[in-house]
Write a structure and sequence with these properties.
about 325 residues, alpha/beta, UDP-N-acetylmuramoyl-L-alanine:D-glutamate ligase, 8-stranded mixed β-sheet, 4-stranded mixed β-sheet, 9 helices, 14 strands
Length: about 325
């Protein structure tokens, strides 16, 4: 099954990202604690994350040219976040630092037994973009624009400009809001978390048998060429060209250390497949491989594979 659109060429960047970067505080515990108990930590790590920023790192490690537009706080975490992207080769010409603002911060409790996590976050509203703030100047510079739902009005304006410049627009949504649903109408590739499709179309049923109908209804409502959802250990489902495609989850080499950022990694792999002219099924396979490899290590980025690591994993998978 081929992607139902053509990508432009002769652009400075393969993928532009507009959205979230974050400072992640990872707390690895033996298991999730019960209320009114104490538990010793196995490990605690401070690292960088964020949906869009981490997806761009994933693409950069696979050899593609990426650029990030977003806002950092004027604090030590923001400086670490900037440096983490620069080290990976992500262009920050369109990124900003906001004086007196605190970088988006996430506190992530991870259960060592399963690698599953719970996230608490704090977002400084001084980092938010209005529609008028949208960095329109980047719109014509990439083959793909990848956005999240953090600044949907600004992302909507940018998506329209990117379409006018011949780019494909991709989105990673976790939460349903009126602004996110308006943005969805300008998205070509919409891959969301498991519950997003049914909530986006007002479907109350949660059973798996309703998933395909929710994706179909979402595609019909918003007009996205490719829609899909990730379902963790249950794999992923896509709908394009009137056909559904399923991809099971693969085994994580060694053990699952942390599932933080696995969805971001999936987007990186899927966009890599799109940008290298793979079929949708092969893009899903690559995306799933990148996602499971990301779970090898703590944090959203440390486990993201290089091109050689990805190729080696896929070779042994076959």
């Amino acid at each position: 099954m081929r992607f139902p659109f053509r990508l432009s060429h002769n652009k400075p960047f393969d993928c532009l990202g507009f959205g979230e970067n974050a400072s992640d505080y990872l707390l690895l515990a033996p298991e999730f604690p019960e209320a009114d108990t104490k538990s010793a930590l196995i490990e605690d790590v401070q690292t960088s994350g964020g949906q869009v920023a981490s997806a761009l790192v994933g693409l950069a490690r696979l050899g593609l040219k990426t650029a990030y537009a977003g806002r950092f706080g004027a604090d030590a975490a923001g400086e670490r976040g900037r440096e983490s992207l620069l080290r990976e080769g992500v262009d920050l010409s369109f990124a900003e630092t906001v004086e007196a603002a605190r970088t988006h911060t996430s506190y992530i409790l991870i259960a060592a037994t399963t690698g599953e996590r719970t996230v608490l976050f704090a977002r400084d509203e001084r980092l938010a973009y209005s529609a008028e703030d949208a960095p329109i100047e980047i719109a014509a510079r990439g083959r793909v624009l990848h956005v999240d739902g953090q600044n949907p009005r600004a992302a909507l304006r940018l998506a329209r400009a990117a379409h006018s410049a011949g780019a494909v627009v991709s989105a990673d949504f976790d939460f349903v809001s009126d602004d996110a649903l308006a943005l969805a109408q300008e998205v070509d590739v919409l891959i969301a978390s498991a519950d997003f499709p049914r909530l986006a179309v007002g479907m109350m049923e949660e059973a798996d048998e309703y998933r395909d109908r929710a994706l179909r209804d979402m595609q019909e409502r918003f007009g996205c060429a490719v829609v899909g959802c990730t379902r963790g250990a249950q794999g992923a489902t896509m709908l394009a060209n009137g056909m559904y495609a399923e991809m099971p989850a693969f085994a994580v080499p060694g053990e699952v250390r942390d599932t933080t950022g696995a969805g971001d990694a999936f987007h990186a792999g899927f966009l890599y497949g799109l940008l290298t002219d793979e079929s949708i099924q092969d893009a899903m396979k690559i995306a799933t491989a990148v996602a499971v490899l990301s779970c090898r290590r703590l944090g959203a980025r440390d486990g993201l594979p290089t091109k050689d690591e990805l190729d080696d994993y896929l070779t042994h998978l076959n």
